[in-house]
What we know:
CATH superfamily of the largest domain: Zn peptidases
Number of domains: 2
Bound molecules: nickel (II) ion
Low-confidence stretches: none
Mean pLDDT: 97
Structural class: alpha/beta
CATH class of the largest domain: Alpha Beta
Amino acid sequence: xxxxxxxxxxxxxxxxxxRHLHENPELLFDTPKTSAFIEQKLxxxxxxxxxxxxxxxxxxxxxxxxxxTSGKVIGLRADFDALPILEATGLDYxxxxxxxxxxxGHDGHTAMLLGAAKYLAETRNFDGxxxxxxxxxxxxxxxxxxxxxxxxxxxxxxxxxxxxxxWPGEDVGTFAIRPGAFFAATDQFEIEVExxxxxxxxPNATIDTTVVASHIVIALQSIVSRNVDxxxxxxxxxxxxxxxxxxxxxxxxxxxxxxxxxTLKDEIRDLAEVRLKALAENxxxxxxxxxxxNYMRGYPAMVNAPAQTEFAAEVAAKVAGECKDxxxxxxxxxxxxxxxxxxxxxxxxxxxxxxxxxxxxxxxNDEAIPAGCSWWAEIVETRMPAN
Length: 387
Ligand code: NI
C-alpha cells in the first residue's frame, strides 16, 4: 500500500496549517500561540481527549479505535518549537517574528501529526488507542524529558512510542532508520583557567592564562584521537575562547573556554568526562595555573529499540517502497527521553534538496506531507489491526 489517497486530498489543508505555524514561530516552552493552535485543531478534528499543559506547554490527544480488544496504546510524537535564527528564505509565509524561525521543520512535524490525527479520527480503523504527543522545547530545553517527568507515559498507559524528523539531502518522502544508538548524547563544558595577570611586556612576572588555555584546547584533542577506541564515535569541540582582556598589552587573569562533547555510549561518555577534567586540571597545573571544569550532561543518546525499529522500517517500506539504512547522527534529540521510558523508534523522512536544518534558508518541504502522514497512520493501523 503506497501513500494513502486521503492525504493527497488533505495535503492543501495540512500545508496551510504548516505555513501558519511557520509564520508564527515560538521558542522553547514559550509557545502560547502554537499550543493553542494545536489544541484548537485537535478539537475541530474531533479527537476523544485533548489535554494541554503536559511538560509545561505540551499537548496530548487521544484517539480511540473502533474497538479496543487489544488493549494496546501507541504514542506518536511531534515537536513544535522554533530556533533563534533570523529567517532568510524570502517566503511569503516567512516568520513574522524577527530572529525566530522554524529552521528545523518542527512546523512540518506538527502539521503532519495533526494531519494523521484528522485521518485517524475520521476512520478509526484500528483496535486500540493512539496517543498524539505534541512536544515543546526540543531545541535545548528538554521538553521531551518534561513531558515524561510529568507522568505522561503512565497516565495514558503508552506502551510504545514513535517519532519522526525530516532530513534534507534525502529524496522527499523517502525514509531512513537505524536500530540502536542513532543520535548522540549532548554534553556541554565550561573551563575557567586562572593564572596571574599582568603586563604583556613582563610575562615572566605572570602566569599567562592565554598560553595555558591554548595548551588545554590542544590537549583536549587527544581524547577522541588517543583515548576513545577508534571503532567508536565521539566528538569534543571547543567552541568559545574568551579572555577578560580587550587590551593589546594586558595578560588576563582569567580565560574561559566552552564546548560540547557528543557520544553514543555511556562508557564513552564517562571516559570523555573523566579525561576532559584530568587534561584541563593537570595541564593548568603544569604551568602553575588552575582550571575549574564544569561538565554539564545534556540529552542522553537516542536509542531505537530493535523490534520497533524493524516494524517502523516495514511500515516505511509499505508507504515509500523501501526504507534505507540511516547514518549515525552526532546531533542530539530529546526524543531520547521518551525512548528511555518506552520502547519505540525514530525515523527520518527525506526533505529533498533543501538547505540543512538550522540554516537561515532552510524550509520544510510540503511535498513530504503525504508520506509522513501515511507513515503515522500506517503505524497505528498495522500495529493495532482492526478486527
Ligand atoms: Ni529538529
